[in-house]
Amino acid sequence: MKKTIFIFISFAISILSYANSAITKDLNKPRPGDNVKFYKIPVIINLNDTSIIDLSSIKVDTDYKITYNQFKDSLLICSQNREVEIFDDLGDSILLISHRKPGLILDYVIPEVSTKYPLNKGENITGIFFAEGTRAMRDYAKISGSYSLSADNNHYSLITPEADTISELFHTKYIRHGSTIIDNDFSRSYKSGDSTVVLPDSIMWHLNNDSITHYIERHCLYARGYRYPILETRLHKVLYLGNTIDSSFVSLYCSKSSQVHDLASDPLNEELRLEDATNAFRSNFGDIANTKSRNSISNNHFSPNNDGDITSSLSENESCDISHLENSNLININYSTSPDCIVAVTLHNSAGALMWQTSDVAYDLQGELSYPTQHLVPGEYLITVFLKNSQYSFKFIKK
Fold first, then answer.
1. What is the largest CA-CA distance in the chain?
2. Which domains does the chain show, CATH number per domain?
3. In the list 6, 26, 248, 333, which could disulfide-bond 87, CB 3.0-4.6 Å?
């Protein structure tokens, strides 16, 4: 199998994906054209202490954008803050083989496993790594240590800043414990061919005895059908003689809507999101109509009208008119049905994600509903209205 090299920034999140009870490469490996937007959360979130994370009262307004671009046939490049990491993709795992930033160049003699595919619940992998290089183009630098990557069986729920509840999040934990040595004698060891420095016993000796070490703990929460973690937390510590002398903590939020609109489309992710949106609709409204969400436009019971909407076979006492008034940023729905009918409305984007849903009881023969569209990003949308015996769909484009 052909090997591929990926280049990422160290800030970039893990290349993982979520499907049922596993992280898989088919759903969540970065694609060329991905524009990932992260928001820094100004609170410390410790996933070791809670299973429900409530961000509904948190305002996020500082974003970090990461763009992936294809270079030649085997390189995927992402750059930020002039820091680059190079990964070797072996198909079932991704290995860190080089780390470069201003003033520091490190090449891994023993690569560090960044992630593996698939990663199942309850699974844990461990290993050691060793890298050496230069600092400021003159000093010898080496890093050696151990890592572990695991996925637990705990269940997490997240209330997003948009007040959207996401349940059954998949949790991964990455721990990296290493020692860093800087020596002014550049020629002493660098690429000297001394194999003793990369023996496991030597690496673990340095890890346990070097006076300055570093510790990184990274948690990621993944939602079904979304390529990147919805939430990621990172804890960095610098230790001296076993005591913390410096530490930093950062939490990053990547919204579902951003992952739908800003990433290159992928049929597998879209299929899972569509399935979840359909199930969410039915759990809230019941199976009051035989619907397949946005796929209903291909249902044989529907025929396009001249104005672009899609209308069902009419029940004798039911009718519905749907219009999009772009100047007023409103969708208007006027319906006629029998009293006490439950009227349900859904709005999906072109990726099949459920954007909005509501229901009302028709106390009179005539009724009206409206939905504002000024907050929607440009694109194609499908609104569907469910009456007692019929279903109406209307496609419109938000410019």
1. 90
2. 4-261 (no CATH), 289-398 (2.60.40.3080)
3. 6
* pLDDT digit string, tens, across residues 84-134: 778 787 778 888 888 888 888 999 989 999 888 888 889 999 999 999 888
Question: DSSP string spanning 338-397?
Answer: -TTEEEEEEEEETT--EEEEEEEEE-SSEEEEEEE-TTSPSEEEEEEEE-SS-EEEEEEE
Share of the chain above pLDDT 90, in %: 13
The rounded distance, in Å, linking the Cα atoms of 385 and 339 is: 16
Query: Model confidence over 329-353: pLDDT tens digits?
Result: 888 888 888 776 778 888 887 767 7
Say whether 257 sits in a helix, a strand or coil: helix
Tokens encoding 99? 């780390």
Q: Tokens 């529907």, residue?
A: 302
The residue-averaged pLDDT of 37-49 equals 82
Ramachandran sector of residue 91 (left: φ over 0; alpha: ψ -120 to 50; beta: rest): left
Q: Residues 334, 339, 340, 342: is their CA dihedral positive or negative?
A: negative
96-100 contacts, C-beta under 8 A, 24 or more apart: 96/129, 97/5, 99/10, 99/131
Q: Which residue has the tokens 């984007």?
A: 349
Q: DSSP code of 32?
A: T
93-101/124-135 β-pairing: unpaired
Does an H or E element contain 279, and which? helix 267-285
140/181 Cα distance (integer angstroms):
8
**How far is CA 394 from each of CA 125, 372, 388, rounded to the nearest angstrom?**
50, 15, 18
Q: How far is CA 68 from the centre of its chain?
A: 14
Residue 20 has pLDDT above 80, yes or no: no
Beta strand residue intervals within 117-240, DSSP E: 119-120, 124-135, 139-151, 156-159, 165-183, 212-222, 231-240
